[in-house]
DNA sequence: ATTAATTACATAATTGATTATGCAAATATA
DNA sequence: TATATTTGCATAATCAATTATGTAATTAAT
């Protein structure tokens, strides 16, 4: 079995490189076939754009053909040596190096376009037609797709998706008490200071949260508790529950755990018949605030709070679609 | 308009190179995403074949992945430095450098295959599915097509085809007398010596060939006579005509002119109601003999000839299909 | 048993591109 | 108007591959 059938799509870069090499390998011989000596195939893109118009600057050419600027500088230098382009055509802006084809260059362009170009065009087109999958169109589509979203981004999203599938959200159990405390303690003491009410809830979640009609959810990744979140019953005419004590281990970054926990908490609240959830946080916790917005929470103001660190309050109306 | 829409298929090499660069560009970042440091993406093909089996030699790996041997030598050197492969595993043949993965290498392979590999596989597959033209399959087809016939060969054939279309076969006219003589004189005096009968026919073709019921055809390429061929009436019970004085300018090599002239002469003979054509030549003129065979002539023997240089005689039976 | 040819590989040189860097010219800003 | 920033490009350094070359080790041929 062929290497690339064994490696799979993982090696698409290598496979493309090899195909490029094969397509390119006898380019020099093709030029010789048309008695074009003294022409390096790598000059072609530069040569082509110069043959279309009057004169261009190095940077303009580089942008047009997708090469780096030094690459074009170098190609132009070589072509100038071969007498095909005229370098440093005078311009108002003395930084610019305006280049254009010489008479010799124009004559060569004419020859290439009249004789070689149609032969190659037809040869490649014949290959495209011999194949059932259109390489030329496929490349164009990939250029577009990669423009929209890089391969890195795509892989990153796929990784997140796979890992979030490996995340399991379970209900609180005594064995998670230490995780519940340490995960919260970690970020609170990192940004603020632990307060009396924190200790109460974190040390005795069953007493302070669950027995009072609340819920705690734990996110397990490969069995390990890496995220927690609580839904605390509120004694308030406006709100049924407060979402609080959400904490995700830095180890679990990029696994969507915050989102999954948030969704699970909201669903739990719905199951409990809640119509509004409240939360408070601090704007320095930007990723958290961002997550709350994504979950559908909206900023409100004017409620008293026992926590010193809270400077933003949000609510989620579960009855609105 | 996009550069490649303007250049057309001529720039398929450049376009492939750019796509390869785009696909490859964030490979390093992808490895980092999986906490794989100390791994260069270019190692992947080598790493992969080593992860499949026990141990391999440098050259075996090179052949398998389509790289040059020095490239593999270098990659192995780098991987050895990173502690992923074990170099110079002892072998009977002391020239061989047998290499295999270390424990660390095996562990890494496991990690890559279990985590990174499926994510990339799916990401690339999603891209393939988002496009309407299947890049992966198209590449495979092109690998096959180029294996069958290189791009150079294809372009060469296309050039020949185009040029043979630009060749015009016309009937002899006095203005072609000098071409008729010089083209023949060129090859005859090059390989042999001009004989008395040559001068007669070449200096006075109208008297010696046409007025005696023969024909002369001239191949014009862009108006210039670059090939000639005569059909000489024979006074023989076995043959109607002799095909002779075929000459093609070396300038016109590869334009199929010999074939086109031969075909035209045969058709002319058919139109004249001939049933058998005769020719004589010399076996040192290999391309000519080859052409005669391709035109359908078959070797015969035992006829007398006025030319010293003839050492092969052939005939074409026009009545046989 | 020599000698010649082949093979396996390392090293060196080259190629065609890239990023990094520095400098002068032009433009924007205080 | 002086200063800071940006632009355009050349040069240098680097990278990932390639061909070219040299040298042991092995195999084939005389």
Query: Could you give the order of the helices and strands of chain A?
Result: HHHHEHHEEHHHEHHHEEEHEHEE
Question: Might you state the CATH topology name of the largest domain in chain A?
Answer: Aminopeptidase
- Give the low-confidence spans of chain A: none
Structural class computed from helices and strand pairing of chain A? alpha+beta
On the 0-100 scale, what is the average pLDDT of chain A? 89
Short structural summary:
Two copies of one chain form a homodimer. Chain A is built from 14 helices and ten strands. Chain A has helices at residues 3-7, 12-25, 27-33, 44-52, 58-65, 69-81, 103-130, 135-148, 151-165, 177-191, 196-203, 205-210, 257-271, 286-295, and strands at 55-57, 85-89, 98-101, 167-171, 215-221, 224-233, 241-248, 276-281, 298-300, 312-317.
Keyword list:
Aminopeptidase, Arc Repressor Mutant, subunit A, 2 domains, elongated, homodimer, 3-stranded antiparallel sheet, 321 residues, 14 helices, DNA-binding, 7-stranded mixed sheet, alpha+beta
């Amino acid at each position: 079995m062929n290497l690339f059938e064994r490696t799979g799509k993982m090696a698409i870069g290598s496979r493309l490189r090899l195909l490029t090499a094969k397509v390119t390998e006898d380019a020099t011989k093709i030029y010789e076939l048309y008695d074009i000596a003294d022409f390096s195939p790598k000059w072609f893109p530069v040569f082509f754009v110069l043959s279309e118009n009057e004169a261009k600057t190095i940077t303009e050419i580089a942008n047009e053909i997708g090469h780096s600027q030094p690459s074009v500088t170098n190609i132009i230098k070589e072509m100038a040596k071969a007498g095909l382009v005229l370098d440093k055509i005078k311009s108002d802006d003395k930084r610019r190096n305006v280049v254009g084809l010489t008479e010799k260059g124009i004559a060569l362009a004419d020859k290439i376009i009249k004789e070689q170009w149609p032969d190659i065009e037809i040869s490649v087109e014949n290959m495209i037609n011999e194949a059932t999958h259109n390489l030329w169109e496929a490349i164009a589509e990939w250029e577009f797709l990669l423009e929209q979203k890089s391969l890195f981004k795509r892989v990153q999203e796929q990784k997140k998706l796979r890992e979030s599938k490996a995340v399991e959200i379970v209900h609180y159990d005594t064995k998670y008490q230490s995780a519940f405390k340490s995960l919260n303690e970690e970020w609170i003491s990192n940004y603020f200071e632990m307060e009396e009410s924190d200790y109460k809830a974190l040390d005795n979640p069953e007493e302070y949260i669950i027995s009072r009609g609340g819920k705690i959810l734990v996110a397990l990744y490969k069995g390990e508790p890496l995220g927690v979140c609580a839904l605390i019953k509120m004694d308030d005419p406006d709100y049924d529950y407060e979402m609080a004590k959400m904490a995700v281990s830095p180890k679990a970054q990029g696994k969507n755990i915050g989102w999954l926990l948030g969704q699970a908490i909201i669903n739990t609240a719905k199951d409990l018949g809640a119509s509004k959830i409240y939360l408070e946080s601090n704007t320095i916790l930007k990723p958290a605030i961002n997550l709350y917005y994504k979950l559908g929470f909206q900023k409100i103001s004017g409620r008293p709070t026992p926590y010193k660190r809270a400077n933003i309050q949000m609510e989620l109306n579960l009855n609105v679609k």
